[in-house]
Amino acid sequence: MKRLLTIIFAILISLALIDINPVLAVNLSNGAKIFSVQCAGCHPNGGNIVRRGQNLRLRNLRRHKLDSVETLAYLIANGKNNMSGFKDRLSTLEIQELSAYVLERAEKGWR
Q1: Looking at the DSSP assignment, which residues form a beta bridge with residue 84?
Q2: Which residues contact 72 (CB under 8 A, 6 or more apart)?
């Protein structure tokens, strides 16, 4: 019995230390609002009116290794090529919310 309790305790401690999904901590509805104001002009429905091949579809994000909240946040903050960075216009939290929203929409095919 003592050994069983030790194992259960160890499992509970391990679970408490694991960050299961940091994306859940951000507000996706705020990310959607930010996207509609800051991004939808160039990226309607995950597309790209400036550079057609550089869309926000999951396949394209994976090809460019932008399929995580962290990599998207870096791109949004710093920009690349024709896309300017947003770190001067959005807070770190807003960039995280926007990144999580974009990734969530990409995973759902922008439906």
Answers
A1: 79
A2: 61, 66, 98, 99, 102, 103
CATH value at residue 51: 1.10.760.10
Q: How many Å apart are CA 105 and CA 46, to the nearest integer?
A: 8
Assigned domain for 82 exists: yes
DSSP 45: G
Domain count of the fold of the chain: 1
Query: What percentage of the chain exceeds 90 in pLDDT?
Result: 71
- How confident is the model over 8-57, as pLDDT tens digits? 766 766 555 554 444 455 789 999 999 999 999 999 999 999 998 899 99
Q: What is the pTM of this model?
A: 0.77
